[in-house]
Design brief:
Elements: H1 3-31, H2 39-53, E1 61-62, H3 63-86, H4 105-116, H5 126-129, H6 132-162, E2 168-170, H7 172-198, E3 208-211, E4 217-220, H8 225-234, H9 255-279, H10 283-309, H11 339-352, H12 367-378, H13 389-409, E5 414-415, E6 418-419, H14 422-447, H15 450-453, H16 461-476, H17 491-520, H18 542-549, H19 554-566
Helix pairs in contact: 1-9, 1-11, 2-7, 3-4, 3-6, 3-17, 4-17, 6-7, 6-8, 6-13, 6-17, 7-8, 7-9, 8-9, 9-10, 9-11, 10-11, 10-12, 11-12, 13-14, 14-16, 14-17, 16-17, 18-19
């Protein structure tokens, strides 16, 4: 690994780590409705929105109502976007001489659901299909709205874990509004200005026709690229303005713009770990999650870089060494301005964060490199993950581990001091089984039908199998990137990938909210100790207390530690630190 690659990787990790705490604290204050630096600008807008929509910001919703609002919001957004796409030829900024790809009903439906679920799976070339109106009013708006909805669900999930004896998870419309006004809009404004500074265009001009040195005519697309480019990364969406996505020089012109876009992808999901720790009252839990994410991220980065930089054994006579005159390594499908390190960092970041904003062709990666990207998505993108969704992916994975550990040692599993009962276990299992129950049948269906196999235009055999598996995994993970060797603009793939995207969005969010609601309706184990005799809280009575709650159980250990910390005497009953438990 060369010095430039090491510096880029270390600098990226350091900046993300440094920003986790301030951004996490800021988001905790935003969603706890505490004072922030943007209140003077955002509060008046928030009040106007509530007055127009009739939302009561003080009313909270139980888990079912919150989930229902989330699903209905996505459904309405899909319908509106579908209407815009089907009617785009009658709307402004449509150039029929350049926008030649027809938006068939199945392609329009696939695209609408793709953007409303933050998948941004693209079975079309943006510059040849979408008008400026569709890009801005349709796709760009959905990037904001769908990203904000995902963040709202993530905050509601955390809120449920932090509460006791409460089925309320907050107000979806309040969380959505605050996600937009306090988080995404300010971040997108700053980020778009930085990208324009780096050379990303932001205009509504007609496409430019240039004459090359060979007297050939070349069409150079224009458009409001910067506005879509920043929110596709900040909202962990990933759909590009152009067909080449982040490899196009108008979307990603310099190594610095590439670095800025990668930071936009990771910063908010990483900071949510700190927000989680603050909201549940256990900051160390947040740092533990971030440490696990960072460890897995570093392992993936190391494996992919090593695989892409090493000499290909089938090309033993080719000089693959890195030098001042060549990037070295496997440069097929990669941009020279990014090299191995810039391409590798982008591939690992985007495959971990539900953001298909690639800047190289993953179909050209080595076997190990492509395997790591596929594995990142199969793991549920728990390393940083999507905006809001990544945090509950990590917590639900931890809950699975706690559940299995409880089975092995014969105890009731607990997390954050709360017991995980049968109802909670059902939500965990629904979450865990959703991926294999959808991805594997869809892959088998595509491999066993003529309609599925017809999409293998360039590769067959094991690599063709991987392309199909990668496609459904990417759609289920709401990621959107592809191996690009599969022709997917067919009714078969448009409809089957649509199913995968919907289940990946709502089929995971609903069990996660259900689990959070059930945990929030329970109580801390220590709450049950209220009402015990005074003698149990004396030094001499600790053995009796231990025998009551189990000296080896987490309940007994937690209770004894709290009693010791509060230094109770035999004549003083402890003051409960939470609301009293009522059966």
């Amino acid at each position: 690994m060369d010095l430039f690659s090491v510096i880029q990787y270390v600098l990226f990790i350091v900046i993300v780590t440094v920003m986790v705490k301030p951004l996490g604290r800021y988001m905790e204050r935003v969603f706890s409705r505490k004072r922030t630096v943007l209140d003077r600008l955002c509060l008046p807008l928030e009040r106007i929105i509530y007055r127009i929509t009739g939302v009561d910001p003080d009313a909270e919703m139980p888990g079912k109502e919150y989930a229902t609002c989330f699903v209905l919001f996505g459904f309405v957004g899909t319908l509106l976007l579908y209407g815009i796409l089907r009617m785009q030829q009658f709307l402004p900024w449509f150039f029929p001489q350049y926008h030649t790809t027809p938006l068939s009903p199945d392609l329009a439906l696939n695209t609408a659901i793709s953007f409303s679920t933050t998948t941004t799976w693209q079975a079309y070339a943006g510059e040849n299909t979408m008008s400026y109106f569709s890009q801005m009013v349709g796709l760009c708006a959905q990037n904001f709205l769908a990203g904000a909805a995902g963040l709202a669900v993530g905050i509601a999930f955390i809120r449920g874990l932090s509460r006791q004896h409460s089925e309320a998870l907050g107000n979806f419309w309040v969380d959505l509004t605050r996600s937009l006004l306090w988080i995404l809009l300010p971040g997108a404004l700053v980020g778009a200005l930085l990208l324009v500074w780096q050379g990303v265009p932001m205009n509504f001009r007609q496409y430019t026709v240039a004459t090359t040195l060979e007297d050939a005519q070349q069409v150079i697309p224009q458009g409001p690229v910067a506005a879509l480019e920043i929110i596709k990364n900040l909202g962990t969406n990933g759909g590009g303005f152009f067909n080449a996505n982040g490899a196009h020089p108008y979307e990603n012109p310099t190594p610095l713009s590439n670095f800025i876009e990668l930071l936009a992808i990771v910063l908010l999901p990483a900071a949510l770990t700190n927000t989680f720790g603050r909201m549940v009252g256990q900051p160390r839990q947040g740092w533990l999650f971030y440490s696990v994410m960072l460890l897995l991220f570093g392992c993936g980065l190391t494996f992919v870089h090593h695989s892409e930089q090493r000499l290909d054994p089938h090309l033993a006579g080719v000089d693959f060494r890195n030098s001042r005159v060549q990037s070295g390594g496997n440069m097929e499908g990669k941009e020279v301005r990014f090299g191995i390190s810039g391409s590798t960092l982008t591939a690992v970041v985007t495959s971990n964060t539900a953001t298909g904003s690639y800047n190289s062709m993953h179909d050209s990666y080595t076997s190990l490199g492509g395997m790591v990207l596929l594995l990142n998505m199969l793991l549920g993108e728990l390393v940083f993950g999507g905006l809001g969704t990544g945090l509950y992916a990590m917590v639900m994975t931890a809950a699975i581990a706690v559940f299995l550990a409880g089975l092995m040692i014969g105890r009731s599993p607990e997390y954050l001091g709360k017991k995980i009962g049968p109802a909670e276990n059902k939500m965990i299992m629904l979450y865990a089984l959703a991926a294999p129950l959808l991805i594997l049948p869809l892959t088998a269906f595509a491999l066993s039908t003529r309609a599925g196999l017809s999409g293998l235009a360039t590769n067959g055999g094991p690599h063709g199998f991987t392309e199909i598996l990668f496609t459904y995994t990417s759609c289920f993970a709401n990621n959107g990137q592809t191996f690009a060797g599969l022709s997917v603009n067919t009714p078969f793939y448009n409809l089957t990938t649509t199913l995968a995207m919907m289940v990946g969005r709502f089929g995971l969010a609903i069990p996660a909210l259900g689990y959070s609601c059930l945990i929030g309706n329970s109580s801390d184990s220590f709450t049950y100790l209220r009402g015990l005799p005074d003698s149990l809280f004396a030094n001499a009575g600790r053995a009796e207390l231990s025998s009551c709650v189990g000296h080896r159980s987490r309940t007994g250990t937690t209770a004894l530690r709290k009693i010791k910390r509060l230094e109770f005497t035999s004549h003083a009953r402890p003051t409960p630190y939470q609301a009293p438990f009522t059966a």
